Amino acid sequence: MDGKIDSGSTAWMLTSSALVLLMVPGLALFYGGMVRRKNVLSTMMHSFVAMAVIGVQWVVVGYALSFGTSVGGWIGWDSALIGLNGLSPGKLYADKGVPELVFVMFQGKFAIITPALISGAIAERMKLRAFIVFIALWATFIYCPLAHWVWASDGWLFKLGVLDFAGGTVVHISAGVSALVLAILVGPRREYSRRGASGVLLPNNLALTLTGAGLLWFGWFGFNAGSAVAVEFPVAGAAAGLAFTTTQAAAAAAALTWMVVERWHNGKATSVGLASGIVAGLVAITPAAGHVAPWAALVMGMLSSLACYGAVQLKHRFGVDDTLDAFSVHGVGGLLGAVLVGVFCFTPVGGVLAGSFAQLGKQLVGVAVAVVYAGAGTAVLALLVKKVLGLRVTDQMERDGLDIGIHGERGYHLEQA
Amino acid sequence: MKLVIAIIRPERLEAVQEALQRVLDEEDRYRITVDSVEGHGAQQGEVELFRGQRIRARLVPRTRVMVAVNETYVEKTINAIIAGARTEGGGAVGDGKIFVQPLEECIRIRTGERGSTAI
């Protein structure tokens, strides 16, 4: 493009950016419905504070670190991008006919939702200020470098040829693995350790959870189809259409699979199961959305539900209280999706089904890097925060509920006229 | 005077109201107080599925019906509640209980009347 704004591309990116932001309150509802009544607000707040905290971090340094001029492929940096000061509204992003500010905002929503995903693993027990400091550090030292490696045109994993259309490694593997590490370091909820998985840990309002799952599905079209900005001009074109289609196909296939498997295994098809299936499918197709065919998306959604269902079943044996299955769904689904890209991809390169194992190898490298970096980095940052601030609320506050203890509010006053 | 307290299935409330209306509305209108309660009987609650786990929810939602009546209506009230609250085909586990307590006093707030005329 010769420096001319393409209104169609820009309109779609503006729309996509807003869609991705809508996923955050969607996630808040999804998570918020599954905790006990006394923790509905503190759980939803984890997602909402990510909008506030990372929304600032991204403008101040996040974008510069992720998409600034590359320093050896390892990190971005450009002093003109601090506070987005040197970005004139008319400056265009690469050759896509979209103002760079629009690209900044689109990427910023990804940076917001990723740490919010982690919060599912530590619901009902983590200190708010520890969470806020943790996600600010995590976004800066884990998310931004990973985003740079995988998505910036000079990032070393990008140059290696790792495919991650919309965030299988950067978003879901990193969030899922970090969630697992953080859940271990924070420790299980007090009732969880005493009674295992049974007892009094029942959800307060699954209607919120289903509403949230619906909003996530809706917003995910922006997440995946908007990510066509990386590969095609005009942005609202064939790659966006393909990503839109595979997103829908994978989510539906995964939801259906979860229902069938749960009905067969546990006797009943639950609403939380269907909602988990939707998310499992969306997660798995995220790295593949613009690279695989619709039929492959159906297969990937199906496989993701099988893997995530198994992970949800197995995790109770390990005694890790991944409270709302951030690892079992985002971690496992993200791993599966990122690997399967190397099997099913047909554009821009062919995968195993096209007779080439090269891409699968690259995907495995990308997955391994994301797992190790996010896992080790989270351990370091969380231990640091633990030393300075402590990670957990007091035992009494955990019993009374975090809503009244941290926020001085209760989510429900249903007895009031 | 007696206070008849019944714990019933929430979906049976309408049937109980209709039955009470039939037996108690002979000369007057029946009175009733209803609230939502939770509890369990011998079955210790019900099994819920949540995130792939079978969890025993110890407290099950039920409806509590309270009817204050004069002596002559006690048996009629009990029978009406049974007729309305028992599951078709001879009853089922979870249909609930009826408790009858002596009622020491009854006062109509508006007039200050006391005893059986206030009920």
Task: Give an account of the 3D structure.
The complex is a heterodimer of chains A (417) and B (119). Chain A is mostly helical. Chain A has 15 helices and 4 strands. Chain A has a single domain, classed as Ammonium transporter fold (Orthogonal Bundle), CATH 1.10.3430.10. In chain A, the strands form 2 sheets. In chain A, strands 1-2 form a two-stranded antiparallel sheet. In chain A, α2 packs parallel to α4. The model of chain A has no long low-confidence stretch (mean pLDDT 95). With 119 residues, chain B is α+β, with helices and mostly antiparallel strands. Chain B has one domain: Alpha-Beta Plaits (2-Layer Sandwich), CATH 3.30.70.120. In chain B, α1 packs antiparallel against α2. The relative contact order of chain B is 0.30. Classes of the chains: A mainly alpha (417), B alpha+beta (119). Chains A and B meet through α10 and α11 of A and β3 and β4 of B.
* SSE order of chain A: HHEEEEHHHHHHHHHHHHH
- What would CATH call the homologous superfamily of chain A? Ammonium transporter AmtB like domains
Averaged pLDDT of chain A, please?
A: 95
Helix content of chain B: 10-25%
Which oligomeric state applies?
heterodimer
Instruction: Note the overall shape of chain A.
Output: globular
Q: Helix/strand/pairing class of chain B, anyone?
A: alpha+beta
- Measured by DSSP, the beta-strand proportion of chain B falls in 25-35%
- Termini separation of chain B comes to 8 Å
Total number of β-strand segments of chain A? 4
Primary descriptors:
heterodimer, A: 417 residues, mainly alpha, Ammonium transporter fold, two-stranded antiparallel sheet, two-stranded antiparallel ribbon, 4 strands, 67% helix, globular, B: 119 residues, alpha+beta, Alpha-Beta Plaits, four-stranded antiparallel sheet, 2 helices, 34% strand, elongated
